[in-house]
Amino acid sequence: MEYQRKIQHSAAYIQEKLGKIQDGCVGLVTGTGLGGLTDSIENPVSIPFGDIDRFPVSTVKSHTGRLVSGSIDGVPVLALEGRFHLYEGFTPLEATHNIRVLGELGVGTLILTNAAGALNPSFETGSPMLIEDHINLTGQTPLRGENVDEWGDRFPDMCAVYDPALRQLAVDKALALGIRLERGVYMQITGPNMETPAETRMYRMMGADAIGMSTCMEAIAAHHMGIRLLAISCLTNKNLPDCMQEASLDDVIRQAGKSSAAMTKLIRAVLKEIP
């Protein structure tokens, strides 16, 4: 299968540059304005996405677009500083190329982060939100087409995409650190246009607590490969349909930057105790 060969080529290139990936290595994906998490990586070795064989290259200015290898507080990590979105023109397979490569390299645990708009009126802007479940409203899936049996089942069960033990660990660590941690359902739309007030009202009625343009594709691909998953959103703005305010990309990046310290502190605490 051509797609599988592309993934293997990318993984082989990374192994050639970095050597054998350490056992217990945790994957990280940083979203818009949250690339500062990689500043915590000790002894970093970085590879630009454009240098990796068969690897896509992000077109989003706020995404650095590089793979960073190293450790955080003694825990080996492979961090993807940037991701690929459907609105950039990538297919679901291309948008999850990075996740498939991490799985091919042997990464067994993945932490996804993103910037999202809060739909739940009780949620605080600037707070992290633990993703407990998701709604994929893109109408697309990275599992469409031929299945790679070595990666996972043709019809994977989706009742627990986000690992319950990792979620509980995040809740416990947030409580210990005094970090307000919202908990809810994340919805992915295609974008790049923001939602209208009427759409916002509908999404909330459908059960979404936060909304963004990434993550669900990656979560589906990771779960398909049996990778344990933890996902946390940074709530950069609040969408209230009766008093909507414009939210520019610059505003989102600025708020994510302000909130990145709490996100980084929480994720570092979780990393230390991932079994």
Q: Features of this protein?
A:
single chain, 275 residues, alpha/beta, Rossmann fold, 5-stranded mixed beta barrel, 7 helices, 31% helix, 24% strand
Q: Overview of this structure, please?
A:
With 275 residues, the protein is α/β, with parallel strands linked by helices. The chain has a single domain, classed as Rossmann fold (3-Layer(aba) Sandwich). It is 31% helix and 24% strand. The protein contains seven helices and nine strands. Strands 5-8-7-6-9 form a five-stranded mixed beta barrel. Helix 5 links the parallel strand 7 and strand 8. Helix 4 packs across helix 7. The longest helix has 24 residues. The radius of gyration is 17 Å and the shape is globular. The two termini are 34 Å apart. Pathway: Purine metabolism; purine nucleoside salvage. This is Purine nucleoside phosphorylase.
State the CATH architecture.
Answer: 3-Layer(aba) Sandwich
Summing up helix and strand content along with how strands pair, one would put the structural category as alpha/beta
CATH top-level class: Alpha Beta
Order of helices and strands: HEEEEHHEEHEHEHEH
Q: Look at the structure and name the CATH superfamily.
A: Nucleoside phosphorylase domain
How would you sum up the major sheet?
A: 5 strands, mixed, barrel
Distance between the termini: 34 Å
Count of folded domains: 1
InterPro entries: Nucleoside_phosphorylase_d (IPR000845), Nucleoside_phosphorylase_sf (IPR035994), Purine_phosphorylase (IPR011268)
Family: Belongs to the PNP/MTAP phosphorylase family.
Pathway: Purine metabolism; purine nucleoside salvage
Domain Nucleoside phosphorylase: 26-272
